[in-house]
Structures are given as C-alpha cells and as structure tokens.
Amino acid sequence: MRFPVAGIVITNGEVWKEQRKYCMNTAQELGLGLGHWEDLIMDEISGFIEKIQEHKGTPVDIYNYLMSSIISNIITLLIGRRLREPHKIEMLVNYTSTVTAFMGASLITSALPGLRKFCEVFKIAGYDKAAQYNRDFMSFLKEEINRHKTSPEFKDMHDFINAYLNKMAELSKSKNTNHFFSEPELEGNLVSLFLGATDTIFSSLGWLFRIMSAHKDIQEKVYQELMDAVGKDGRARYDERDKIPYTFAVLMEAQRYASNVPMPGNRIATDDIPIDGYVIPKGTEIAANLWALHRDPNYWDNPEKFRPERFLTADGTKLIKQPQSYAPFSVGFKEGKFLSDPTVLDGTAQSQANRVFDIVEGWGLSENIYALCFETTASYIRLKNGAFFQLENHLKRKILFLA
Question: Quick one: signal sequence residues (predicted)?
C-alpha cells in the first residue's frame, strides 16, 4: 500500500508552492463549495437527516450514514458528477476509513516500508485489504481523469479535473516546461483534497454532534438563532454566516476544543532556518502542535471549557474571525478547507434545526466485564479481523467496544 508520491500533502519546496497556489486559486475560481455546489451539499445533508429521522428517536450508529453523505459531497465537487453506483460509494468509504489508519506517519510500517509490504503479502492486521482499497481508489481516479479527457459530455464540465487538464494543455501549447504540472500531480492533488476534506468534515461534525448533545442550553440557543435567521429547514449558506454568529461561533469553538487536526502533515525545511538563536537544519521534518496552540492558557481563558462566546464580540452580535492562537486546519491553506467549511456549517445547522441528536438517557452495562482488550486498528475500521472481533467470536455474543 502506497500513498501517491505527488500532491500537496506529500510534496515540499517549489513544487508544493506551485501546486498549493494553483489549488487555492482554482477553488476560488470554480466556487467549489458555494453556489450550485452548495445546493448539492445541502441536498446530501438533508438526505442524511432523513436517514436519521427514519429511526424515530431510537439510538443509531451514524457512521455509515454520515461518511457516505460526506463522501458523496466531496467527490461530486472534485469530479463534477454525483456517484450513483452503490459499489463505488462503498469503495470510497472503505478507502477513506482505512488509508489514514494504515498510512499514519507514526506507524512503524511507515518508518519501515518493507514491513508494510510483508504485512500485505502475509495478510497481517488487515494490510492486504487496505492495499486493495488503495488500488481500487487510484484506479477510480485514473478512470475519472480519462473520462474527462475522452468523453464529450465531461470535457466541458466546470470542475477541478477539467481545470487542471486545461492548465496542462495551456502549458504544453506554450511549450513552457518550467513547471510541475502533470497527471501524477493531478492524481495526488485529488487524493489530498478528497482525504483532507472528508477527514476534516467527519471529525468536525462528529465532535459537534457529541458536544451539542451534551449541552442542551447551547443547542437551544443555536436552534432559536436558526429559526430567526434562516427558517425551519435550517439551510444556512456559507455567505450568510454573519446572520448566525452564535451558530458559527459554536462551530469555531468545537474546532478549537476538539483540535480535529492536532498534528497536521509534516513539512521539510528546504533551507537552514534561524529562529531565536536556533537553527533548524535543511532537510528537517517540521510539524505544528495545533492541540497545544488551542489549549494555551496564555490565549484561552479556561481552555478545557467549551464556551462559544469566546469567538464573539462583547455584545454577542459579531464573530471574531481570526483570534490569536487559532489554526484549526494548520497555519495557512489546509487541504480541503474550502470544501469542508460550507459542509460543516450546513451539517450543523440542519441537524440542530431538525433536533436529531441527543444523549441516550439511562444507558448502562447490564453484564459483567469479561475482558479488557487492547484493540488492533483492523477492528476499529471494520475490517472485522482484529482482536475485538476475535473476542466476540470466542464469546459467541456481541460485546461493548470502547475505542
């Protein structure tokens, strides 16, 4: 299993600067996440809410519903069409659920790539299935790029793939070779944007749902603001966020409180960097500790408390949009941020307007604990071959799994 060797998550130096700038500018030019795209996002969120409401107030695991909805949103914005094939949506869910778990920089298999290959070949800990999901996803991207290059109905689509292909054609026509644009970079950028957005949205909404369920007073304030500003359906557009300052402050505080991206991807120093008498040598990997940034008591009063008001002016009518020591998506441009913000806002607004989340009251353990299991990643990502599932099979009954 290999992550693409190109794209804004992986690259550094001049190629990263060029591709990062292009992704930012193209996202703004295409209006990704806004306008027509925002309508698609709202429709997908509405579908997710309807799925939850079908359970009529009974407890439900929202993982598949939420992940499928998010993936449908993001892939539509990148490839210019909605996926209608259930098997492809399932493939994207499998890929998203496994890639970060098996490709994390802190894993020993990342430090020793040969060990990862060994685990794949001998089918250890789910690495073989993860590798297959990765191959399936990369084949899917190549197929979509080829479709945009050859199919008349896709050539004129106003989407990220066509924008990039047109840029490549423009550079080729001008015989300009002083650039890094290529199909491998396009594939890598699509992977970066897709994973960056899906991971950000899923973790952001997951934390928001948990926090809102535990804070009924905050939930009520958000509900009242939404009813007054946008109406009963709760469809809040991103460019209308100033009309709902408290709701957006809740979103920002959740991103600070949870630090959804506690340690963003590493970068490599391309030159020696002097800072306060120290020198960071060229070639050093650099990572930002965003969790520490968001819990620094020098900037945040009682940082362990969830308090949306810290992002509002004294009269509570306006947002403080750029407070110090706040960088939920890392410093500067975060892959997928322009796709994630409108989705997180609408997901929060519609879910609260429809009052679909709550804490299950009176729940408890009714049987003795049989074992304490140090779980493997394979069970958590539902490959069903980790220690948790082996314990279930041994006991011949379902057991509680706390991850």
Answer: none
Domain ranges of the chain: 13-214, 348-401
Rounded Cα–Cα distance for residues 203 and 220 (Å) = 23
Residue with tokens 């292009």: 22
Q: What confidence score (pLDDT) does residue 209 get? A: 86
Q: What is the pLDDT of residue 5?
A: 64
Report the 3 state secondary structure along 307-374: CHHHHECCCCCCECCCCCCCCECECCCCCCHHHHHHHHHHHHHHHHHCCCCCCCCCCCCCCCCCCCCC
Q: Residue 186's pLDDT band (boundaries 50, 70, 90)?
A: very high
- Look-up of token digits 């008001």: 309
Instruction: Judge whether residue 230 has pLDDT over 90.
Output: no
Mean pLDDT computed over every residue of the chain: 82
- CA 27 to chain centroid, in Å, comes to 17
